[in-house]
Predict the structure.
Amino acid sequence: MELSYTVRIWSIRKRPYRKPFQLRWQVGTRPHSESFLTVGLAESRRAQLFTAARAGEAFDVESGLPTSMLKDQEVSWYAHARLYIGMKWPHAPASTRRTLAEAMASVMPALVRDTKGMPDVNAARTALYGWAFNVKRWGEEPPRDVAAALAWFERKSLPASALADRMLVRQALDALTLKLDGGTAAASTIRRKRAIFHNSLVYAVDAGHLKDNPLPQVRWTMPEKVEDELDPECVPSPEQAEILLAAVRDQSARGRRLAAFFGCIYYAAARPAEVIGLRLRDCDLPRRGWGSLRLRETRPRSGSAWTDSGEAHDTRGLKHRPRKAVRPVPIPPELVAMLRWHVTAFGVAPDGRIFQTSRGGLIQDTGYGEVWAVAREALSVAERESGLAKRPYDLRHAAVSTWLSSGVEPQLVAKRAGHSVAVLFRVYAKFLGNGDDAANAKISARLRQGRTPPA
């Protein structure tokens, strides 16, 4: 609990809402507000805060309440969830902030006293995901419908201590499995949200809102088996990858600008977010032979609502690596030639980035996704319907599979791809389209070696 003696309390203001009288105050640098039906109730709470401040009492920065009031008040799950988000926010990247908000927004509707007057699914999603659990908007004035929805959840929320009931925890877990349309979410999404819910319960124990974490004692099964393996039919062969890269290059001026971008994903097994931030100074591009890339940052698109900079793309280090880690990747002459041509034709951005839009901006996933969708038209109807190379990311899977089928040691493949050997075999070690035929030929040749010729 972070305490502060710096407290500012403003006058009560009237707004055209259901609870029109709003009291605003600030503890440290964090703003707080509370709405009331009558001006008398608002004045009473304001007097309580003034009395505590004049008595030299410390205030809790998270809840905004003096310690004397905090001890007597049972913290609701809604308030605890906001405390949890506020604790995680400063050190979390933008994509993680979004995931935290999604998890808390999914579980919140299941932890209310009753559903009378509950906002509809879309309104609740907008209010919780976009406002209640987005720290960047806590100081803003929400629209009237959003404010009404938030007030409903704040009023109807169960206390955090109620999570000691295992059946209530099971109910919350079931809520994590659902999408907005009522369907079942992907297994990986459920697993990620469950981990966040577990961590929020751990934080509730640390904050004294729960005696112990009930989640490990709940016998709850995922609605479907978590599958980390990729469908082999999605992984293109080297021949199919060449067809797709050629289709990108030949379709339009935008395609020519993105040909080397997709080439980096295929020939260097780089993640798209890693390629977006690739700079010329991190490339070794000799006239002949192999070159190399030094991947050192990612530029995932998280949305301006979640980044500290207010830009759509966040700037982070390599995935699952220290912030200043660098991953060197040797690249074949084919990719060296593509990059040299690209730099000659389009130059580089002012900050040294190789890939940029025609206006000098960052490459957008929607833009290169459209180019890739058109390039897949070069495949046969059967290949398109099978889901072959459905996403640009499948080029990365193809690269790792090609390296493995070429006989490169798994440890070296994992190092170049930027993950562990365990992940390599569980997720990326996929055979290519002709892998079965090649394996059968090797087995047949070995069997013939040990066979005794007939007399």
Q: What stands out?
A: The first strand starts at residue 3 and ends at 4. The chain has three domains: 1-73, 76-227, 233-436. Residues 1-73 form one domain.
